[in-house]
Every structure is written in structure tokens, then in C-alpha cells.
Design a protein that fits this description.
The complex is a heterotrimer of chains A (260), B (352) and C (294). Chain A contains 11 helices and no strands. With 260 residues, chain A is an all-alpha fold. Helix content of chain A is 78%, strand content 0%. Chain B has helices at 6-26, 45-62, 75-83, 157-160, 180-187, 200-208, 220-228, 239-247, 275-285, 288-294, 332-350; strands at residues 36-42, 66-72, 91-93, 132-137, 139-144, 170-173, 214-217, 234-238, 252-255, 260-267, 328-329. The chains are: A mainly alpha (260), B alpha/beta (352), C mainly alpha (294).
């Protein structure tokens, strides 16, 4: 496989394709105009100022962070355990059960949202962080399950067997042998779970109240009514922060001298 | 008079003092009323800014015991709330397609002794008693001033459908509830006052002629933006968007001849916990001065006949209501009865 | 194809139960979904036959717009899945081969966009793809085209927008599985005389199939539910099913019809997946079919 061909023929245009919209958003966030003209007629920090001074935005960002973190942790733990059972267990109606675990991905969100809203209304949970976390966890669960199941299927069983033949109890085997082997998939699943919650609009719209809004809800109402570049500023800030986090993780791994 | 013993008299005095003290601590304001929190649900964004400045802040100043919270409206959410008997909204901005016969069961009856119903031109902005008209807006013909053939500008909807005279792409809302059929009928020669009942096939035939040159979208902002950036030379979009873009320097102008006009409506969800206060708040918002004030922040007209005197001259040209002479008034009652059929027929045509 | 250890490969109690120890692990997840997801869903499904009646399904069957939209939705989802596979597999492969720093760069490029809002990113695409947008301006400036190309307001625009959003969902599962595969296998095959392409097709590809399947499943299924991207980048004349469901529920308040559409989508999707697993030897990838190694 001619690697150079691959790199220049594919990666470079793709890189462009992946990164271009984000760059556009960053440029617009510095626009001096309130209409999303491109290229902007002028530049300034007006929209960043707006973001930090309007509490709606900062509150929403904080809420989104809490909900996304909570639902990521819940979905990843639950999803990993479930994937173990799905792949290795014996249970009736395999096809059906596996399919059911996928259903949150398939069912159109607006229908689920309406159903969840009615349910949470009756349970007096609308407007609580718990409701948002639970709702987002159900939507994220399939991502974790699919990723971890794929890893379990690919995993070489000899290490586990070796550990068990040496007398390690199941939990220990899992934590010290299995988990490190499937970790990339668990992390991928966790990432998807976080992103799903972070970006989730429809269910969050239903479960929000004036006191509890997530960032996508605020963005959505802005986008529908008046696209003003505060949205672009919010987006760029988040991208910037995640870039820093990624850089931080990267340099931490380098220092710890973990290969790759 | 019963003879009160000494012990009982002292007890009575102590109790009286306690009661007075409690009353003094508990009763917060001069009005002697508890704080009532009303939740007002509307569309957010720029409209929220306008509503806060024109309605909410002045009202809270006038009534220190009332607090108004803002939430985002979603009619499906409203229906779900009412059905589950767990209503958290008190005043909802429901839109012209909600609140007539089909939806009465979700709303409280309006008390016209509190709300000035008669002043709100019910002949133009219909209501069956469960909703209150508070704003007027509509769709209109916007065009890009830099993309017009020399010396010409569109004079009416007929020009929107005339690809010879005005070549170029059109931008349009893609849903029939943006009155695409009414506009087509008027373009085809039907007088504005006589478009109902809609001759659907005639309207569709008019659209057939330009279908391939139209960019349809369901996004209010995108519709007008296409005209502002020149991707389309003319647009059938909500005039408020055109007006705001124009104000911000975009090369768009509006041809007001034939603009559609319909009301925006307040309603009180059935089961609201503060019906009385909600009614009073609505009465305030539709009274002449506050109602006229909103047009300074967002290009909406006011249905209250007495409000015209208070509308600033500088904003008048941007309001659909200033061009009522040639406007198409939307018949909400007709729509309430035929909505499903209209949606189905238009969508079948659109997706062919 | 390397498969995970089936239930009999690991020490297990001798009694033959319907559900074994491992199988019990599925309970928390299934239970959680049952309560938090299936109960609300069931409520809406009941609505599809009770609000006002099962005639909702008749309405769905009789309206050509719904059927056309369903077909179009599957078409787009399939298209996006294929594009993501063709673009995503090489990316994942390169990520796997790359040395430390470059691997992070490649990962970051595919993952970073996920953090900015989907709405904002889709909007950025309109800035890039519209007639007066950046891409057309660039192409016109270098005289490659005379007239702007229609890059949005059609299936192309939708496919571009959705691919960028879905690519990470293809790349990451494939990468995660590739990591587990012995790095020396391909060079070993080649040293035994296999040509590079044959080595790939017969050695690497089959081993990476679980990841490929996971990625394709994710992308396909999630693509079915999109409505923001097609609303902004597509043509108002070819709605995807979710757009119609939103219209039925939020604009027309026909909760029953909306739910019926959702139920039909669910059933058809399961059918498509089931059909797919019949024809492609991926049945073991996610535990469909018989419990193996019995």
C-alpha cells in the first residue's frame, strides 16, 4: 500500500474538509457585524464579551458540562457491563435483546422526547439535572455498547484465560487484564456518550425550564430566531478549550512515556 | 359582653402582639400581596429581548409583587403539560395557527372585562374567545437591490413569479403555512380580499412556472439571508427578517404591496396556577402604549386600534400594518378548518 | 476471523441455565433502558393506535410523501455510510500506523469538530457551500468554473454536512479494533509472498470487520435520525423522515401520526439490519444469531 499516496491524496483534502467549518466559525466569532457575512466586514471581540456577560450562556455551558459528564460516566459504566453480558453471556432471544439495546439510536428523538417529557412531568422531574442526565444516558448507551462489544469480539482471549488459570477472581481479571485491552473502545464509547449529551437538542428542549438550560438549547433558540455570532463565539470557546484538553492529555502521556 | 378573666386578657394581648408582629414580617410590600411568579413562554432570541424591554421589565416595575420568568414556547409541550395536568406556563405566545376551535380544550377562556378584546380588531385577527391578538406580522416580497435589472424593482407578487422580467433565483419558505398559496393567487390576479376559500390548484399552477428556480427552506433566517447575500434575487420570507437585515446594512428592500398580515396570539394554558394575574398581564401587554412600544424593538405591528397614536413615526415604514391597504389578511378560521388538507396537498406538490 | 470467547470458553457453572452468570450482566443495562426509554416510548407507541385510532397507520401507508421520504432517508443514510467507510477506514489505518505525535494530530482533526455545536457546524457549511459561499468563490477565482456550483440545497450538501459529522463515528471504532490487531501481520503476509492488496483483503480487512461493522451500524442508524442538517443543507423538496415527524408532532400536533411514523421507521430499520446480517458474515460481531461455541 503506497502510504505516501494515501497521505497526500486522501488525508490532506480530508483534513481540509474536517477542519474548514470549524475555522469558519472561529473567524465569524470575531466578526464586527451581527449578520453572519463571510468574510466579515470587520473584526472585534464583541461576541466574546456578550458570551461572558450574559449569564444565560455561561450558566448553560456549566449545565451542559455537568450533564454531559454525568451521563458519560453512567453510560460508560452501564454500557461496558452490558456489552460484556451481551457478547459473552447466554440469554434468550439474542437478536432481540441486542436490537433493543440499539433502539435509542434508531427511534426518532422527537418522539422519545415527547414521551419522556410526559413521563417526567408526571414524576415531577422536569427541570432537574437528574432528568437530563438519565435521558442523555439512555441516548448514549448504544454508542458505548457497540464500541465495547466490537472490542470484546476482537480481543485475544488467551490473556484472560491465563489470568484465570493462575487463580485470579473474575473482577480482578476484568480490571487488570480485560479492561486495559479494551480500553480504546471504552474511551471511544465514553467520548461518543459525552458528545451525544453535549450536542443533544431535542430532548433537552423539552426538559429545560427557565432555570435549567443546556448550551444547545440556548444555541437553538438563538439560531431559530436570530443568528448572532455569540453562537459562533460560544462554539469557538468550546473548541478552544477541548483543544487545550487534548494537548494536555497528549503531553501527559508523553511525560508518562506511554507508547503511542 | 362576656366577662374576660385577667389571665385570659393578658393572653389575648400577647396573642395580638404576636399576630401583628407576624403580619409585619410576613407582608412584604405596600400592596400587602404575596409575590406571584408568572411564567411567560415565547420564542426567545431577538423577540425575547424586545419582550423583556417592552413588556416584562415595565410590568414588573409597575407591579413589584409580580415576577415574570421567560421560557421557550413549544406548543407540543403545552399540549403535553395540559394533558398531564402539570401546567407551568401562565402566558403563552402561541402563534396564529393555534387557539381556535381545534385547541380550545387546552386553553382558559379569556375574560374580556379585563382584556380589551373589542379594541383588537377581531374581524381581522380572529379569536373564538380563548386567545388574544397582540402582534401583527407577515410574509412579504424582499429583493436584493444590487441584483435588479436596470431601473426596475418588483411592484407586486406578479413580479415574483415573472422570470422574464426579473430573471434569477427565488428564495421561499417551504411550508404552506407561510401563505405561499395566498401569495400565488394574488399574483395570478385574485384581489387580496377575495383569496378565501383558496383555489389550491390555481395557486399550485402558478408555482409550477417557477418551481425549478426556487430555493425552498424552512428556516426563517436562511430564507432572508439568501436574498441578502445575493444567492436569490427575490424572497418570500417573513418581513421582520428583511427589515432587520436592512437595518443592519444588507442590500435588501421590501415591496409591501400584497404583504400578508396575521396576528400573534397570547393564550393561557388550561390549568395555569395564576389565571387572574395572567389575564391582567395580557391586558397590560395589549393595551395601546406597551403594545406600540414593542414595534420599537422588533418590526411587529399592534392589533389594538388605539395603539396607532403611540407608534413612533420612524418605525412605521417597517411595519406590515402601515401597508394594510394592499395587504392580504390571513383567514385563521379557514386555516383551522383546512390545515391538514392544505399541508398534504402542498407537500405532495413540493416533493414531486 | 478472531472471535471473542464464547460462553463456554470461560469457566462457567456446570448447570445449564437459560441465562448464565455473564448473561446476568445484561440486566442492569436492559433494566435501565426499559425504565428510562421503553416506558416513555411505549407511551408514544400506544398513542400511535389510540390518538385517535390505528387509522394513523393507514394514513402513513396512503400518503406517498411519507413513503418517498422513508426511501430517501434510507438512501441518504446508506450513501453517508459508504462515504464514511471509504474515507474513514484509511484514516483509521493511518492513525494506527502513525507515530505518537501524528496519531494525536489525526485523532484531533477528526474528534475536535465534535465539540463545537452541531447546529453551528452545519451553519458553517452553509457559509462554505452556498452559491456565494467560500468554495464557489474560490473555484471562480481560479477560473475552474464560470457559474456557481449547486453544492447545497440538494443531496450533495446533505451528504457533505452529514459525512463530516459522522466520520468520527466510523473512524474511532475501526481504529480501536485495529489497535488490537498484531502490527506485524501485514508485513508478515507480504514477506510470505502476498501482494500488498491481497494482504490487506485477506488478512487485515477480515480481522478489522467487527470495527467496520460497528462503525457502519452507528453511522447508518444515526444518519436515519438526522433532521437539523437536512433542514439547513438540503432541499425543502426532499425532506428526510425525521423532518416530517417533527412537522407532524410540533407543527400539526398529530402526535398519533408522528408516533406511527416513528414505529414504522423502527420496524423497517430493524428489518434492514436483520437482512444485512443475513447476507454479510458479520452475525457474530454483535452477538446476533446463535450463542456460539456451544
Amino acid at each position: 500500500m503506497n502510504r505516501r499516496l494515501l497521505v497526500y491524496g486522501l488525508v490532506v483534502p480530508m483534513a481540509f474538509f474536517l477542519v474548514a467549518p470549524t475555522i469558519i466559525v472561529v473567524i465569524i466569532s470575531f466578526s464586527s457585524s451581527s449578520i453572519l457575512f463571510f468574510p466579515p466586514p470587520g473584526y472585534g471581540l464583541r461576541w466574546y464579551d456578550q458570551f461572558f456577560h450574559v449569564s444565560t450562556w455561561t450558566d448553560a455551558a456549566a449545565t451542559s458540562l455537568k450533564v454531559a459528564t454525568g451521563s458519560m460516566l453512567a453510560a460508560t459504566t452501564l454500557g461496558t457491563v452490558t456489552a460484556l453480558g451481551l457478547v459473552r453471556g447466554r440469554y434468550p432471544a439474542r437478536g432481540l435483546v441486542n436490537g433493543l439495546m440499539l433502539s435509542p439510536l434508531i427511534v426518532p428523538t422527537v418522539i422519545v422526547a415527547l414521551g419522556m417529557y410526559i413521563l417526567y412531568l408526571r414524576a415531577h422531574l422536569v427541570g432537574t439535572l437528574l432528568a437530563l442526565m438519565v435521558a442523555h444516558s439512555t441516548l448514549s448507551l448504544p454508542y458505548v455498547v457497540i464500541n465495547v462489544a466490537a472490542a470484546l469480539r476482537t480481543m485475544d482471549p488467551t490473556m484472560e484465560l491465563a489470568a484465570q488459570s493462575l487463580g485470579a477472581p473474575p473482577l480482578r481479571t476484568f480490571l487488570m487484564v480485560t479492561l486495559p485491552l479494551i480500553l480504546p473502545s471504552v474511551v471511544a464509547g465514553a467520548l461518543f456518550a459525552f458528545i451525544t449529551s453535549w450536542d443533544e437538542v431535542v430532548v433537552s428542549l423539552f426538559l429545560s425550564t427557565p432555570f435549567l438550560q443546556t448550551l444547545p438549547v440556548v444555541i437553538w433558540t438563538q439560531v431559530r430566531s436570530d443568528v448572532d455570532p455569540t453562537v459562533a463565539a460560544a462554539s469557538s470557546l468550546v473548541t478552544g478549550v477541548s483543544l487545550l484538553v487534548l494537548l494536555g492529555l497528549f503531553s501527559a502521556r508523553r511525560r508518562a512515556n506511554v507508547p503511542g | 359582653m362576656r366577662h374576660v378573666g385577667l389571665g385570659q386578657a393578658r393572653l389575648g394581648k400577647v396573642l395580638a402582639v404576636i399576630l401583628v408582629a407576624l403580619a409585619a414580617v410576613w407582608v412584604p410590600s405596600a400592596g400587602g400581596q404575596e409575590t406571584v411568579t408568572l411564567t411567560y413562554a415565547s420564542y426567545g432570541g431577538a423577540l425575547k429581548d424586545a419582550e423583556v424591554k417592552a413588556f416584562i421589565e415595565p410590568y414588573m416595575k409597575l407591579h413589584p409583587n409580580i415576577k415574570v420568568l421567560y421560557d421557550i414556547i413549544d406548543r407540543a409541550k403545552l399540549i403535553a403539560m395540559v394533558e398531564s395536568n402539570n401546567v407551568t406556563w401562565d402566558v403563552a405566545d402561541v402563534g396564529n395557527d393555534f387557539g381556535l376551535k381545534a385547541h380550545e380544550k387546552y386553553l382558559e377562556k379569556i375574560d374580556c372585562s379585563v382584556v380589551p378584546c373589542a379594541d383588537l380588531q377581531p374581524d381581522k385577527y380572529p379569536t373564538t374567545g380563548y386567545r388574544v391578538a397582540w402582534s401583527v406580522s407577515g410574509v412579504g416580497l424582499g429583493y436584493n437591490t444590487t441584483k435588479m435589472p436596470a431601473g426596475q424593482t418588483p411592484q407586486s407578487w406578479a413580479d415574483f413569479f415573472d422570470l422574464q422580467k426579473f430573471p434569477g433565483k427565488r428564495s421561499s419558505m417551504n411550508d404552506v403555512s407561510s401563505f405561499v398559496l395566498e401569495v400565488a393567487l394574488v399574483a395570478d390576479g385574485v384581489p387580496a380580499g377575495k383569496v378565501y376559500p383558496l383555489d389550491i390548484q390555481r395557486g399550485l399552477r402558478k408555482w409550477d412556472a417557477i418551481k425549478s428556480e426556487v430555493k425552498f427552506t424552512d428556516n426563517f433566517q436562511g430564507c432572508a439571508e439568501a436574498v441578502a447575500t445575493g444567492d436569490a434575487v427575490m424572497g418570500l420570507c417573513w418581513t421582520g427578517r428583511f427589515a432587520t437585515m436592512r437595518k443592519n446594512g444588507a442590500p435588501v428592500a421590501i415591496q409591501w404591496n400584497g404583504t400578508t398580515l396575521n396576528g400573534g396570539y397570547f393564550a393561557i394554558p388550561k390549568g395555569s396556577k395564576h389565571v387572574k394575574e395572567a389575564m391582567q398581564f395580557i391586558a397590560y401587554m395589549v393595551s395601546p402604549q406597551p403594545c406600540a412600544l414593542i414595534s420599537e424593538y422588533i418590526p411587529y405591528g399592534c392589533p389594538n386600534v388605539k395603539a396607532a397614536a403611540y407608534v413612533k413615526d420612524s418605525v412605521k415604514p417597517n411595519l406590515g400594518t402601515s401597508h394594510a391597504a394592499t395587504a392580504i389578511f390571513i383567514n385563521d378560521v379557514y386555516w383551522d378548518q383546512h390545515r391538514d388538507e392544505l399541508f398534504k396537498t402542498w407537500q405532495a406538490w413540493l416533493t414531486k | 476471523m478472531i472471535d471473542g470467547p464464547g460462553p463456554a470458553a470461560l469457566p462457567v457453572r456446570a448447570r445449564a441455565h437459560l441465562v448464565d452468570g455473564w448473561g446476568l450482566l445484561t440486566l442492569p443495562g436492559v433494566g435501565f433502558l426499559a425504565l428510562a426509554f421503553f416506558v416513555p416510548l411505549a407511551g408514544m407507541m400506544v398513542r400511535s393506535v389510540s390518538d385517535p385510532s390505528p387509522a394513523n397507520y393507514l394514513a402513513v401507508a396512503e400518503t406517498p410523501v411519507f413513503l418517498r421520504s422513508m426511501l430517501y432517508t434510507f438512501e441518504v443514510a446508506l450513501l453517508v455510510t459508504l462515504i464514511c467507510l471509504v474515507l474513514g477506514y484509511p484514516w483509521a489505518y493511518l492513525m494506527n500506523q502513525a507515530a505518537g505525535r501524528w496519531r494525536w494530530v489525526l485523532a484531533a482533526m477528526v474528534v475536535l469538530p465534535l465539540w463545537s455545536s452541531l447546529l453551528v457546524r452545519t451553519y458553517a457549511w452553509t457559509v462554505l457551500l452556498r452559491d456565494s459561499g467560500v468554495v464557489n468563490q474560490l473555484l471562480e477565482r481560479i477560473h475552474l468554473i464560470g457559474q456557481p456550483l449547486p453544492l447545497m440545497g440538494n443531496t450533495l450538501g446533505v451528504a457533505i454536512g452529514m459525512t463530516q459529522l459522522m466520520l468520527p463515528f466510523m473512524v474511532l471504532p475501526i481504529f480501536a479494533v485495529l489497535r488490537q490487531i498484531d502490527v506485524d501481520l501485514l508485513p508478515a503476509a507480504e514477506s510470505l509472498g502476498a501482494r500488498p492488496l491481497a494482504a490487506f483483503v485477506r488478512v487485515l480487512w477480515p480481522l478489522s470487520l467487527p470495527g467496520v461493522f460497528a462503525g457502519c451500524l452507528l453511522v447508518f442508524v444515526v444518519s436515519l435520525g438526522f433532521f437539523i442538517t437536512p433542514a439547513l443543507l438540503g432541499s425543502g423538496r426532499s425532506p428526510m423522515l425525521s423532518q416530517l415527524i417533527v412537522e407532524q408532532t410540533n407543527v400539526l400536533f398529530h402526535f398519533g401520526v408522528g408516533s406511527a411514523l416513528a414505529v414504522v421507521l423502527l420496524i423497517v430499520t430493524f428489518a434492514v439490519i436483520w437482512l444485512g446480517t443475513r447476507f454479510v458474515p458479520w452475525t457474530q460481531a454483535l452477538g446476533y444469531g446463535e450463542s456460539d461455541r456451544a
